[in-house]
Design a protein that fits this description.
This protein has eleven helices and 14 strands. By secondary structure, the protein is of the alpha/beta class. It has a six-stranded mixed β-sheet with strand order 6-7-8-3-9-10, sandwiched between helices.
Length: about 325
């Protein structure tokens, strides 16, 4: 059986009486590119700091590349590339000089260092600033130097915390392309507050809220979810709901507004049987019952919907 690249079991992290991470469990398979999402204070950064051996867990355990983060921290670091949101750099060093220094610390073979550094400069699109001092670079360039640093030793696991922070739109697209290409070659745990970026590059998302995992699923499954129909019709919910429920293929009708509605218009979310497009039948039934119709919209659940429901409302 192939061991996961990242394995977290019953992980807890307390800060005194505050429980930042509360018995979370998840795995990331080798070569997976997973988005790790959560609002500020959700426990996301704390989890990443435990995985990267920057702080110990209070209980439970975690493994990275098969090594225990508590008892085999040196082995974890040799197999891990970590990009924090604020990249710590030496401002007086030149980009190439810094990467040479970091490659030496990480044990990159001396004879292979120049080739590896050139590869990382090219991959992260920073060749044009290789002789610039780090202190003169924009935040976007510093972020990409940090990404190059994570790739120097060709680690099997990458943990990227807000890698697009400070990048302009063109740089964001270039970096997203780079991150997408890294998936498969590396296992990538990718944290970002910008959901469209996560949808562009990740295969799967994990959402944490108040220290607990609230969602863990494939983006392809979200895209294939059963659509719902949103309807707004004139009349009270008690008048319109039975009409909609009587349509063949309609399974459930959920009220979206208070009854009686203040402006006379009721709103519903309709769940239909898979493969049934009930919009035409619903519109016909509402019209036949003598109610005006002002909205009929097909919706599929998106990552944003799941995030709002879990990370913000805790559902």
């Amino acid at each position: 059986m192939v061991q996961p690249a990242i394995q977290v079991q019953d992980l807890v992290k307390n800060y005194g009486p505050v429980v930042a991470v509360d018995r979370i469990n998840f795995e990331v398979g080798r070569g997976e590119l997973v988005g790790f999402l959560g609002n500020n204070g959700a426990g996301k950064s704390t989890t990443m700091r435990v995985l990267t051996t920057f702080m110990p867990a209070s209980s439970g355990f975690a493994r990275v590349a098969g090594f225990d983060v508590m008892y085999q921290s040196d082995d974890v670091r040799r197999n891990l590339g970590y990009l924090p949101e604020s990249v710590p750099l030496y401002p007086e060093m030149r980009v190439e000089e810094y990467l040479q220094y970091r490659a030496k610390i990480k044990g990159v073979e001396r004879t292979g260092r120049p080739k590896r550094i050139d590869y990382c400069l090219e991959r992260c699109r920073i060749k044009e600033v290789r002789r610039r001092t780090l202190g003169t670079l924009s935040k976007g360039y510093r972020q990409r130097v940090g990404l190059a640093d994570t790739l120097l030793a060709d680690p099997p696991v990458l943990i990227l915390d807000e890698p697009l922070s400070g990048l302009d739109p063109v740089q964001q697209e270039e970096t997203l392309k780079t991150v997408k290409e890294l998936g498969g070659q590396h296992t990538v745990l990718f944290s970002s507050h910008h959901l469209p970026d996560v949808e562009k590059v990740c295969d799967r998302v994990i959402i944490i809220h108040r220290g607990r995992i609230k969602f863990d699923g494939l983006l392809s499954q979200i895209a294939a979810s059963v659509p719902t129909v949103v309807v707004e019709a004139h009349g009270s919910a008690d008048q319109v709901r039975p009409v909609v429920l009587g349509v063949k293929g309609v399974l459930e009708v959920k009220d979206l507004r208070a009854d009686p509605p203040a402006d006379g218009w009721s709103a519903f979310e309709i769940l239909a049987e898979p493969g049934h497009d009930v919009r035409g039948a619903v519109a016909g039934a509402i019209h036949k019952a003598g109610h005006a119709l002002r909205k009929l919209e097909l919706r599929r659940e998106k990552l944003e919907d799941i995030y709002m429901r879990t990370a913000l409302r805790g559902e």
